[in-house]
Amino acid sequence: MASPGAGRLKMPRLPLVSRRAVTDPLVAHMYDRKFPGRDPATEPGQTASGAPGNFEAVFAHSPDVLEHLVRGFHLKQTRARKLPLHYMELAIARIGWASSCRWMFSEHIKILRGLGYTEGALADLPDWQASDAFTATERAVLAYADCFALDHGRVPDRLFARLRTAFSDEQIVELTYVAGMFLANAAMIRALRLEHDDYDERVREMPSPPEYRFVDAEPAPLPKRG
């Protein structure tokens, strides 16, 4: 079966900013870090993790927005966080899955692998509710992530009480901010068709025989039972 979007050039919905057009120092820093020695607009390549590498090159159209995004990523990653990184990454990966953001799910599964999660646990993440691979605290984090991605932030009191048992108030604020930030990122990634999320809409009318026409008529009677 062909993959979604197969047969057309995979490009985001906005053009990539050429390195030659970059004047902002933070954008230049990000280009040097993500695209060392090349111009992403004219020399396509892959990031270290295998992604197309166009996220920064599209958001570079607005250096202020790119800076806001990058500082959010830095806030999540810095050692100053009180919440252990693996809990944040677990929430992010789950949000990627639940919001159908292929790139987010793929990138953060790789991070979880690097943090020591087993292949069995990673394979169970899509249906974590039926898995015994996660601790009670991890399950609370995953459920909290689902509340963001699937229920618009509606969180049951009993679930929040579990979080308060496991984490400090500061840690809960960090988890909440990271979950909300990455949910927004997932929506932007999909809207702009960035990285691994450049594929055609899969929910569409499928072809039928040319002679098919719907007829609004009384249905034939069903046979009587027994």
Record the SSE blueprint.
Elements: H1 25-34, H2 55-59, H3 63-77, H4 85-98, H5 102-114, H6 119-124, H7 136-151, H8 157-166, H9 169-192
InterPro entries: AhpD-like, CMD-like
Region (Disordered): 33-52
Protein name: Carboxymuconolactone decarboxylase
How would you portray this structure in words?
- The protein is mostly helical.
- 50% of the residues lie in helices and 0% in strands.
- It has 2 domains: 19-71, no CATH class; 81-192, Up-down Bundle (AhpD-like), CATH 1.20.1290.10.
- It has helices at residues 25-34, 55-59, 63-77, 85-98, 102-114, 119-124, 136-151, 157-166, 169-192.
- Helix 4 packs antiparallel against helix 5, helix 4 (85-98) runs parallel beside helix 9 and helix 7 (136-151) crosses helix 9 (169-192).
- The longest helix has 24 residues, at 169-192.
- The radius of gyration is 22 Å and the shape is flat.
- GO terms for molecular function: peroxiredoxin activity.
- Pfam families: CMD.
- Residues 77-146 form the Carboxymuconolactone decarboxylase-like domain.
- This is Carboxymuconolactone decarboxylase.
Summary?
The protein has 226 residues and is mainly α. The protein has two domains: 19-71, no CATH class; 81-192, AhpD-like, CATH 1.20.1290.10. The protein is built from nine helices and no strands.
List key phrases describing it.
226 residues, mainly alpha, AhpD-like, 2 domains, 9 helices, 50% helix, disordered N terminus
* CATH topology annotation of the largest domain: AhpD-like
CATH architecture of the largest domain: Up-down Bundle
Q: What is the CATH H-level superfamily of the largest domain?
A: AhpD-like
CATH class of the largest domain: Mainly Alpha
What class, by secondary structure content? Answer: mainly alpha
The main sheet comes to: none
Low-confidence stretches: 1-9
Helix and strand element order: HHHHHHHHH
Portion in beta strands = under 5%
Share of helix, binned: 40-55%
Query: How large, in whole angstroms, is the Cα Rg?
Result: 22 Å
Q: State the assembly state of the protein chains.
A: single chain
Mean pLDDT: 94
Q: How many domains make up the coordinates?
A: 2
Distance between the termini: 44 Å
Number of helical regions: 9
Estimate the global geometry from the Cα principal axes: flat
The counted number of beta strands is: 0
Protein name: Carboxymuconolactone decarboxylase
GO molecular function: peroxiredoxin activity
Domain Carboxymuconolactone decarboxylase-like: 77-146
InterPro entries: AhpD-like, CMD-like
